[in-house]
């Protein structure tokens, strides 16, 4: 057990080392690509706290991603506070939205839960789309400055390399926190809800309250991802809150494997690299994604990591 | 007065079209327990098949309207046999994901075959032009859509309530194991029902083609609206689909006329309210 | 141990996938073009592609630019600013293009404008009409060779002032372009004809809306004297079809369709386009009698089987603008090319235009006309037609809000 834990730690450190050296190892454009992978990987991992660990399929997670994106873009445009303060405010803002939506949504489960989160997500979309005076409507919020991370820290984060490092640090810390949550007693209770919420309920677990807590944590980190995404794109647009954006973490998570903590990250990486690769040949890359997804759902419901696991004779 | 009538006609025109489509979605869910995310893509296929039939094979529009839904239904039956059948036993969200994959595949397949641009079909000559009702000028074709929707709805209702196959389907929907035990060939019935759902979606698509622009992903909006309808009416409920479609039609027809800025949000507010107050829909069976 | 190998496998997969593409050939001058290639507006991207293809082939057949051949690649903006920004980054940092051009929508142009300085490449906008990209968002890398909203609306006001219409309203897409068109139309028409009135009831359907019926009914019910319609592309096609069905064009009011004479739209509508309505465009293929224009229209028609739209001409002229600038600079070095582009004079089918130094807006003529069926053409043509000289419709630099001196220092 300790040997396995140590090997795991070594591999994780190696992965971190590669990510840390990425700007030297990879061509310039790959910095953008990896930044996006990290951000959307975080988004998918926070989605998976609800899906993989709690057993709730949210189809409206773009609501929190979009809230994070807009809070960040608007703060930068109108007040330009230090960047880390922007991120914190955006994450908290998204968590508040998640608290409100979650308070209603956790009453339902399964398809009904998916439909209700979809409805709430689209309300957030409609709000940012229609509130032209504040959000610029479908034109979005653009042209905002990228401020220094903290007062007195004169790092220009408009430089893609610096933005990459900022993203890497924040995503690594968030992933660590999320992972701690999943292995904590709280995380174990979430898993028991996924397996059998009735039994948990009989055992005295306040099911809704636990679901709501998971919902809010998930929304918080989704918001952080959105707050990193808008400045990365230099724009916040309503599409970031649209249901098609909600579908992305779902796809990434299924791709990577929802039963594994790193599944969503791997899924995000494979998703974006596939997109990058296929779109240089054809615009119709969603076709191939659809084929892969259908294949995975039918034959490999445990995703790519499940496949690796089986290959390597992993745990049963 | 004429403004009111125009809005009413607009509501009915949107509502009856959505009813045809959403009834297919709700029947499939009621029997198979599958919420088919690709239902809107089947609607799109109906429209594109009609385009091909009319423009390239040069069939009259009427013939296309009859043939196209069957072509799409056969395709859907094949998909059910090859893929969907394998996952009935799993968690219902898996079916949602699998059909979402179908949606991605079909959207891009349409782009590859028919191109990314928008295309249009003209309504048949007998139905071009307008009519005047209480001072409101309205396209004749919309009247045809309303009438077709009503006719299809009636036919489906008769099918389910008066025929043997309809009774079998209802039996399978109520209790799959019991249906099997009394000798109903449930797997075949499932294929049939899934194909019938596709038939309804494709009929809606062919019907809508002369009044909407055809483009890849034209089904994305329809599927979300169909979700809203079946949730409002009650998942699996056929009368619920009619009620939900009429409500949504009215939200667009009247809401779109007087509060166009809120047009995109009303349906979601309606869906959320229904889910919270009556999770199984206005006319759904409570579990 | 398995977990460790698992992670290692992941890592190796990532590294492999990110390995750089085969080394780039340095020879050709590379142009990256970003247009809408999918959805309701995809025909605009197709016409632009045709225009670029024609210009690139002509140039390559006559020896290239500075002896080097020209290559181009297209990316789909999907009409979304964030997609266009990612496409631009890909073109510059992965495909190593020397020059950027394109953009079909004002929203996209406004979103991408602040990012362009980071790309360090000349960016020539050939379609998007937002006043801001040569106004408050201008920078030294951004140029435009197409008529902008101000110019188009100034011409519209000159048309409108002679019409017998006092109360005006609008139907336009609900984003920057629709709102700005209405804003500038009011400003210029008020100056030309102070007794006009602008109604509070306006209609701004969502960009890409499919059902315009409620909006059409609302405008008919409001009984205006004149309607400014700034819908374009697939939206305009849908709008006109539905408006025909509802008898909109038989009503007793004047109509100005600001982009109604885009040939993409005219081809899509055929004889569904009503006759006798004022329509505007940013280039009209019968608008100029010059040999340059005739040669272009003939070559284009021969090759692609239809008549060039403004998007085709602007993209075609865009490639020649780059050619002229590179030859003037005698290098493709970006800083030198943008220096050469400022104040550059270009001979194009639309006429010879100058790119103004102060805001990088090309001084191009505006075209308006009345739709008419014609036996000689498969689409509606403009008769009578009015060509508005650039000098008469372009606001002076001080009015644009652009200050290149200031932005250059940033």
Describe this structure in words.
The complex is a heterotrimer of chains A (316), B (287) and C (410). Chain A has helices at 2-25, 28-53, 62-78, 83-105, 110-130, 132-135, 160-183, 185-195, 197-202, 207-233, 243-256, 263-279, 285-299, 303-311, and strands at residues 141-142, 235-236. Chain A has 316 residues and is mostly helical. Chain A has a two-stranded antiparallel sheet. Chain A is globular and about 50 Å long. The two termini of chain A are 16 Å apart. In chain B, helix 1 (2-32) packs antiparallel against helix 8 and helix 1 crosses helix 9 (218-233). Chain B has a two-stranded antiparallel ribbon with strand order 1-2. Chain B has one domain (2-219). In chain C, helix 7 links the parallel strand 6 and strand 7. In chain C, helix 6 (149-160) crosses helix 7 and helix 12 packs across helix 13. Chain C folds into 2 domains: 29-148 and 289-364, Response regulator (Rossmann fold), CATH 3.40.50.2300; 150-286 and 366-393, 3-Layer(aba) Sandwich (Rossmann fold). Chain C has 16 helices and 14 strands. The longest helix of chain C is centred in the N-terminal third of the chain and has 20 residues, at 42-61. Chains in contact: A-B, A-C, B-C. The interface between A and C is large, with 47 and 43 residues.
């Amino acid at each position: 057990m300790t040997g396995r834990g140590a090997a795991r730690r070594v591999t994780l450190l190696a992965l971190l080392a590669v990510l840390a050296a990425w700007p030297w190892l990879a061509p310039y454009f790959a910095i953008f690509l990896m930044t996006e992978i990290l951000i959307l990987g975080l988004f998918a991992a926070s989605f998976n706290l609800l899906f993989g660990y709690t057993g709730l399929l949210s189809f409206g997670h773009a609501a929190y991603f979009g809230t994070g994106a807009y809070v960040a873009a608007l703060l930068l445009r109108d007040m330009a506070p230090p960047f880390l303060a922007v991120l914190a405010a955006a994450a908290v803002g998204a968590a508040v939205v998640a608290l409100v939506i979650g308070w209603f949504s956790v009453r339902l489960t399964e398809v009904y839960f998916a439909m209700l989160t979809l409805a709430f997500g689209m309300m957030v979309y409609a709000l940012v789309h229609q509130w032209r005076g504040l959000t610029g409507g479908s034109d979005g919020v653009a042209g905002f400055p990228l401020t220094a991370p903290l007062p007195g820290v004169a790092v220009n984060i408009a430089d893609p390399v610096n933005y990459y490092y900022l993203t890497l640090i924040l995503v690594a810390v968030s992933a660590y926190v999320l992972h701690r949550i999943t292995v904590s007693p709280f995380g174990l209770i979430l898993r028991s809800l996924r397996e059998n919420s009735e039994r948990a309920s009989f055992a005295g677990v306040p099911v809704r309250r636990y679901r709501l807590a998971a919902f809010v944590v998930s929304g918080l980190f989704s918001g952080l991802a959105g707050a990193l995404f808008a400045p990365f794109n230099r724009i916040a647009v309503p599409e970031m809150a649209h249901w098609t954006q909600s579908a992305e973490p779902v796809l990434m998570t299924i791709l990577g494997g929802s039963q594994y903590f790193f599944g969503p990250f791997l899924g995000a990486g494979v998703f974006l690299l596939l997109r990058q690769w296929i779109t240089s040949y054809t615009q119709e890359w969603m076709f191939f994604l659809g084929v892969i997804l259908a294949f995975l759902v039918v034959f490999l419901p445990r995703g790519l990591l499940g496949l690796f696991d089986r290959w390597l004779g992993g745990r049963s | 007065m004429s403004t009111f009538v125009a809005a009413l006609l607009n509501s009915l025109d949107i509502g009856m079209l959505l009813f045809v489509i959403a009834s297919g979605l709700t029947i499939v869910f009621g029997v198979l327990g599958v919420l088919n995310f690709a239902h809107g893509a089947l609607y799109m296929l109906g429209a594109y098949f009609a385009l091909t039939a009319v423009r390239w094979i040069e069939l009259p529009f009427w013939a296309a309207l009859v043939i196209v839904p069957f072509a799409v239904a056969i395709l859907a039956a094949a998909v059910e046999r090859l893929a969907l059948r394998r996952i009935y036993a799993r968690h219902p969200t898996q079916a949602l994901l699998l059909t979402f994959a179908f949606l991605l595949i079909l959207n891009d397949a349409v782009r590859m075959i028919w191109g990314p641009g928008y295309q249009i079909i003209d309504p048949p000559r007998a139905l071009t032009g307008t009519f005047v009702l209480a001072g409101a000028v309205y396209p004749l074709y919309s009247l045809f859509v309303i009438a077709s929707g009503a006719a299809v709805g009636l036919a489906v209702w008769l099918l389910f309530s008066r025929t043997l196959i309809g009774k079998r389907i209802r039996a399978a929907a109520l209790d799959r194991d019991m249906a099997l035990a009394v000798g109903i060939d449930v797997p075949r019935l499932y294929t049939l029902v899934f194909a019938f759902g596709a038939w309804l979606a494709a009929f809606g698509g062919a019907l809508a083609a002369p009044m909407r622009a055809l483009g890849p992903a034209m089904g994305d909006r329809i599927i979300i609206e169909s979700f809203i309808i079946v949730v409002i009416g009650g998942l699996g409920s056929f009368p619920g689909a009619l009620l939900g479609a009429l409500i949504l039609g009215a939200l667009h027809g009247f809401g779109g006329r007087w509060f166009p800025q809120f047009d995109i949000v009303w349906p979601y507010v309606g869906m959320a309210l229904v889910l919270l107050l009556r999770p199984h829909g206005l006319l759904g069976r409570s579990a | 141990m398995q977990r460790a190998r698992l992670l290692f496998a992941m890592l190796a997969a990532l590294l492999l996938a990110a390995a750089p593409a085969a080394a780039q050939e340095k020879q050709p001058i590379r142009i990256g073009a970003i247009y809408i290639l999918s959805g309701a507006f995809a025909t605009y991207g197709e016409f632009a592609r045709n225009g670029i293809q024609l210009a690139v082939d002509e140039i390559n057949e006559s020896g290239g630019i500075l002896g080097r051949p020209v290559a181009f690649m297209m990316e789909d903006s999907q009409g979304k600013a964030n997609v266009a920004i990612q496409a631009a980054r890909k073109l510059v940092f992965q495909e190593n293009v020397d020059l950027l051009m394109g953009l079909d929508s004002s929203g996209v142009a406004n979103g991408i404008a602040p990012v362009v300085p980071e790309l360090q490449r000349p960016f020539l906008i050939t379609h998007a009409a937002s006043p801001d990209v040569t106004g408050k968002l201008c920078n030294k890398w951004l140029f435009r060779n197409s008529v902008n909203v101000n110019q188009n609306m100034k011409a519209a006001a000159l048309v409108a002032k002679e019409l017998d219409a006092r109360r005006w309203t609008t139907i336009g897409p609900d984003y920057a372009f629709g709102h700005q068109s209405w804003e500038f139309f009011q400003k210029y028409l008020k100056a030309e004809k102070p007794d006009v009135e602008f109604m509070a009831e306006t209609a701004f359907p969502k960009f890409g809306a499919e059902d315009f019926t409620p909006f059409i009914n609302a405008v008919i019910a409001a009984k205006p004297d004149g309607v400014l319609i700034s819908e374009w592309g697939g939206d305009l096609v849908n709008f006109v079809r539905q408006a025909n069905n509802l008898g909109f064009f038989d009503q007793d009011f004047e109509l100005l369709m600001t982009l109604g004479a885009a040939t993409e739209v005219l081809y899509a509508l055929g004889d569904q386009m009503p006759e006798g309505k004022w329509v505007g465009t940013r280039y009209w293929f019968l608008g100029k009698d010059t040999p340059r224009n005739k040669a272009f229209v003939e070559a284009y028609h021969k090759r692609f089987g239809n008549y060039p739209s403004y998007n085709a001409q602007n993209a075609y002229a865009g490639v020649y603008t780059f050619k002229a600038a590179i030859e003037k600079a005698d290098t493709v070095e970006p800083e030198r090319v943008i220096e050469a582009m400022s104040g550059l004079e270009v001979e194009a089918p639309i006429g010879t235009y100058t790119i103004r130094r102060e805001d990088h807006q090309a001084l191009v003529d505006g075209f308006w006309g009345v739709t008419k069926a014609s036996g000689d053409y498969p689409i509606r043509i403009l008769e009578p037609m009015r060509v508005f000289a650039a000098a008469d419709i372009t606001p002076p630099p001080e009015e644009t809000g652009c200050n290149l001196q200031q932005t250059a220092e940033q």
